Amino acid sequence: MSDPGRRAAAEAALRAAEAATQGRPPDADHQEPGEPQESRKAPPADAAAGGDDPVAKALAFVLRSTRQRPQSEAEVAKKLRDREWGADVIDAALARARDLGAVDDGALARAWVEDRGRRRGFGAARLREELRRRGISDADVDAALASLADRDDHSVAVDLARRRHRQLPGGLDTTTVVRRLAGYLVRRGHPRGLAERAAREAVGLIEERD
After folding, report:
1. What does pTM read for this prediction?
2. C-beta separation of 29 from 132 below 8 A
């Protein structure tokens, strides 16, 4: 969740949800400097009923969990099912979490591609596999991967191969080096043909592509 306003709203919602599960008002733990203890408002008579609100409890869990690390809706839903929340409660909690921006599969996919695709050079195949494994829809995956349309995958692969080459032990024959570099690139999601060409270019067997 990147928008500061939505993040602040989610934090406020977390405090409210946790307060509801404990039968106290959201600001019960907050006291202005110099405010006498007795000036705090007592909780309403029916506040304890909030402690039995399963949606509030489920939402509080979702907000705490996603505050620790971004997660897909599918990942959060599985955690709720593992804790034996009912389908109706899960749907309601996730709907509220979506409204707050605490779960946003599109934003998560875009951030994933920006970090692992743009910054770290992973290929589209690897990125797609990782996002699908997290339960991201194909539509959100396709939209996120579209941001790599202007990337020069050949240059990215050659750069990765050169950096990896510097990390390999000395004394290896050229055939072994090329094989290892190509395998490394394939594991990072680059097509086999591109990987092999980039590996040969990285060790100087072929000239750099124009």
Report:
1. 0.74
2. no
